[in-house]
Amino acid sequence: MRPAHLALAVLVAAVWGVNFTVIEIGLDHFPPLLFSALRFLVAALPAVFLVGRPKVAWKWILAVGLVLGVAKFGLLFVGMDAGMPAGLSSLVLQIQAVFTAGIAAAVLGERPTPARVAGMVIALAGIGVAAADEGTSGPLGAFVLVVAAAACWGASNVLTRKASPPDALNFMVWVSTVPVLPLLLLSLLTEGPSRDLGALRALDWQGAGTVLYVAWVTTVFGFGAWGWLLRRHPASTVAPFSLLVPVFGMSSAALFLGEPVSGLRWCAAALLVGGVALTSLAPARRGSGRTPSVPGGSVVPGARPREDWSRSSPRP
Q1: pLDDT at residue 295 is higher than 80
Q2: Residue-by-residue DSSP string for 68-116
């Protein structure tokens, strides 16, 4: 990989990691479900008019939009609003790799290798350590919400794998059109119209900046750059850079939000990152069609030729 391409891969990981700190700041300006709805609205417009027509069936766009956009991001934003720290959220969400492997095994019949099983066990041990740390310093319910968000992310990865989108950016932009109305409706029902209107009336440059960052920088730039790298390099070369996301997430939260990083949290980080690396990057069984996932919530197209990883079941 050329130095410029290497720098771009690190930049995307940094953008995705810092995103959690930006979300934390944005939650000071918006109710969580309204903030999530605005994120998808701004990500979809005007990009939806620039990326061309959808390249997969609408059933997949709707399914991923509901599971990823409404469930995963809704749970994540509510969990962070309930007290889950930004840095820890960036770390715990990486357990999605374990959920992805588990759901793919149950739904698609993909048999994990012993190395991947070992990686899942190590990552789950990291979640246990993180839960113990959060249980002594923060609300455990918020921690559970973020773990549930990771499970929804894993389910959306399997759905995306079934959809086999040939263009990640096109797919994510169209997926972003789906959650807007459901999230707005949920916000009105649970957060209340007066709270939503109050947040919009009090909108300032900082609040607007957080929406623009999570929508355009994280989604449009992040996925556009990631897809560009994948078109020029093997997924096995690009995917490991996603493991830098919690590093940037925890570092930016400590730097800008003053979040402490305890010894237990560093231990959890080592177990989680190591387990996720083993789960995501260990060789799959022949014909399993494994596709590594990325922090923006989609499966990386191009990890294998499309005719391999779009199969609904592995080779015998």
Answers
A1: no
A2: IIIIIHHHHHHHHHTT--HHHHHHHGGGHHHHHHHHHHHHT-----HHH
